[in-house]
């Protein structure tokens, strides 16, 4: 069945709005309190990177909140959030496939880095859901702390698309590199999509139980090792097979920060069978990943 990307985008936007409303102030506070199990502020101060998922907020909200807290506790004046940019049009998807097949990325109209205030005139980022939960917890934690605008770090969103193994050549790279000089960096990724709704044959699927989550972590850690080596093209191709949406964001933050070592600090999952209207198992792993400067 052909995926209706435009309708999927609408469905995801509606689902996220509904889930945030259901979370409410009480649920949001519970996730913020649960996130206190981690303190990533020193990792960020030393130039490391945190990666949070953007799956179901009820499942991974505390992981997002841990990254928000890390940013605010780091003492940084600026926070650079490097987001994925999903292919919600067929043209974007075909461009991504051409680049993965070795096509000339410079001929693609989507090539570059988008975001509010970025040099790019493209605005696909405005319809993306990847940072909806990030903004939710960012605003909630600022309110909880009673931070005035004068003491709230500047938060800058950037959305790379089609890094193609050469993130430093993307239009807009110089602007992001300048921002990164005095900012802490966080990113978002759902690095493992799995199951019938994502095109896996039923006989090759895992349930999201202990065995399935172990498999997901193995795949995610394989990607981490590739990115540790600075093998940007290898990471691009790994993301294709792993069904990871992190191919561009991962390449960009690794190039900006240089050699790092990564680890999965926490892992959960979100069932996506209802969203894709497909049988179970259809799920996405939500991984909280810490990258420390080598």
Give the SSE map.
Layout: H1 5-34, H2 41-45, E1 49-52, H3 57-73, E2 78-82, H4 90-100, E3 112-114, H5 132-145, E4 154-161, H6 173-180, E5 184-188, E6 193-195, H7 210-228, H8 232-242, H9 247-257, E7 260-271, H10 273-276, E8 282-293
Parallel strand pairs: 1-5, 2-4, 2-5
Antiparallel strand pairs: 1-8, 3-4, 6-8, 7-8
Helix pairs in contact: 1-3, 1-5, 3-5, 7-8, 8-9
What does this entry look like structurally?
- By secondary structure, the protein is of the alpha/beta class.
- It has a single domain (about 5-294), classed as Protocatechuate 4,5-dioxygenase, Chain B (3-Layer(aba) Sandwich).
- It is built from 10 helices and 8 strands.
- The chain has helices at about 5-35, 40-45, 55-75, 90-100, 130-145, 175-180, 210-230, 230-240, 245-255, 275, and strands at about 50, 80, 110-115, 155-160, 185-190, 195, 260-270, 280-294.
- Strands 1, 2, 3, 4, 5, 6, 7 and 8 form an 8-stranded mixed beta sheet that branches.
- Helix 1 packs across helix 3, helix 3 crosses helix 5 and helix 8 packs antiparallel against helix 9 (about 245-255).
- The chain is globular and about 50 Å long.
- The N and C termini lie far apart (about 45 Å).
- About 45% of the residues are buried.
Q: Any guess at the CATH architecture?
A: 3-Layer(aba) Sandwich
* E-strand count: 8
What proportion of the residues is helical, as a percent range? 40-55%
| Highest CATH level, the class | Alpha Beta
Structural class: alpha/beta
As a whole number of angstroms, the C-alpha radius of gyration is 18 Å
What count of helical segments does DSSP give?
10
The gross shape turns out to be globular
Biggest beta-sheet profile: 8 strands, mixed
Number of domains: 1
Instruction: Kindly estimate the percentage of residues that lie in beta strands according to DSSP.
Output: 15-25%
User: In whole angstroms, how far apart are the ends?
Assistant: 45 Å
Unreliable stretches (pLDDT < 50, length at least 5) are none
Order of helices and strands: HHEHEHEHEHEEHHHEHE
What is the residue-averaged pLDDT? Answer: 97
Instruction: Determine the CATH topology.
Output: Protocatechuate 4,5-dioxygenase, Chain B
């Amino acid at each position: 069945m052909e995926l209706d990307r435009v309708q999927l985008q609408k469905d995801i936007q509606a689902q996220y709005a509904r889930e945030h409303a259901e979370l409410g102030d009480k649920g949001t506070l519970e996730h913020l309190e649960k996130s206190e199990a981690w303190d990533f502020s020193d990792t960020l101060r030393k130039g490391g990177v945190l990666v949070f998922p953007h799956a179901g907020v009820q499942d991974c909200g505390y992981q997002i909140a841990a990254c928000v807290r890390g940013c605010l506790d780091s003492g940084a004046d600026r926070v650079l959030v490097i987001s994925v940019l999903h292919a919600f049009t067929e043209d974007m998807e075909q461009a991504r496939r051409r680049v993965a097949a070795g096509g000339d990325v410079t001929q693609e109209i989507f090539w570059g880095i988008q975001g509010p205030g970025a040099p790019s005139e493209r605005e696909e980022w405005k319809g993306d859901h990847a940072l909806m939960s990030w903004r939710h917890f960012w605003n909630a934690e600022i309110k909880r702390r009673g931070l005035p605008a004068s003491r709230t770090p500047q938060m800058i969103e950037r959305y790379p698309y089609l890094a193609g193994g050469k993130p430093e050549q993307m239009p807009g790279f110089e602007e992001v590199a300048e921002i990164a000089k005095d900012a802490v960096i966080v990113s978002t990724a759902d690095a493992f999509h799995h199951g019938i709704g994502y095109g896996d044959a039923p006989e090759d699927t895992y349930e999201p139980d202990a065995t399935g989550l172990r498999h997901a972590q193995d795949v995610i850690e394989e990607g981490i090792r590739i990115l540790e080596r600075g093998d940007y093209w290898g990471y691009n191709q790994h993301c294709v097979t792993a069904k990871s949406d992190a191919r561009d964001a991962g390449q960009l933050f690794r190039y900006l920060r240089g050699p790092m070592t990564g680890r999965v600090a926490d892992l959960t999952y979100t069932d996506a069978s209802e969203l894709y209207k497909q049988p179970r198992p259809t799920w996405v792993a939500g991984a909280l990943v810490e990258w420390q400067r080598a």
